[in-house]
Amino acid sequence: MVLEVGFGPGIGLTEAWKRIKDGKGRVYGIDISQAMLESATHKLEKQIASGKVNLAIGDVMRLPFEENTFDRIFHTNCFYFWSEPLTCAKELRRVMKPEALMITGMNVAGVQKVKGDGYMKYGNPDLEMYLETLKSAGYSEIVREDIKHEGKEVAHTFIYASPNKN
Ligand SMILES: C[S@@+](CC[C@H](N)C(=O)[O-])C[C@H]1O[C@@H](n2cnc3c(N)ncnc32)[C@H](O)[C@@H]1O
């Protein structure tokens, strides 16, 4: 069971589906935007028809899932739009199985460019704040991976985190 929150046009969902399509897995997606739901539903029409992909509109702050549901959760370029990051991180942890893994991705270079060009009207893409939020929300084994562009600036960052077992 895999969940993506903030799936946007459905690029990550498509990649997740490729990995589960021949097995028993299921991919779930939640996005707060009706326009994004429609876009991803169109893109993943066949996958949804197969019954292995389920998309819905919703807020990461209140997920429509039972606790201990997911083995993997991922979200890319999303956490900095959450109005209450601690509440959202706790909510994601609630629906994770004890051995689950959450992967956060951020296009650091892209976000910096958008911010520099003055197009980022809201959102807080502060990775240090996000890491502290994960610790406060009860995650452990938090690992940060910075992928550098030609060995210089950080282009992408991934953060891996699991529910605290205590
Ligand atoms: C910058 S887009 C990223 C889309 C996609 N993950 C990607 O990287 O291509 C951010 C997405 O997060 C969604 N989003 C923002 N806040 C959300 C929330 N509180 N709950 C669910 N989705 C949210 C937006 O609607 C949008 O689709």
Describe this entry's structure for a reader.
It comes from Pinctada imbricata (Atlantic pearl-oyster). Belongs to the class I-like SAM-binding methyltransferase superfamily. Erg6/SMT family. Keywords: Transferase. This is Methyltransferase type 11 domain-containing protein. One of its GO terms (molecular function) is sterol 24-C-methyltransferase activity. This protein has one domain: Rossmann fold (3-Layer(aba) Sandwich), CATH 3.40.50. α1 links the parallel β1 (2-5) and β2 (27-31). By secondary structure, the chain is of the alpha/beta class. The chain is built from six helices and seven strands; from the N terminus they run βαβααββαβααββ. The mean pLDDT is 94. The protein has helices at 11-20, 34-43, 45-49, 85-94, 108-116, 127-136, and strands spanning 2-5, 27-31, 53-57, 70-76, 96-106, 139-148, 154-163. A seven-stranded mixed β-sheet has the order 3-2-1-4-5-7-6, sandwiched between helices. The structure holds S-adenosylmethionine (SAM). S-adenosylmethionine binds next to α1 and β2. S-adenosylmethionine binds at residues 5-8, 11-12, 30-33, 36, 59-61, 76-78, 81-82.
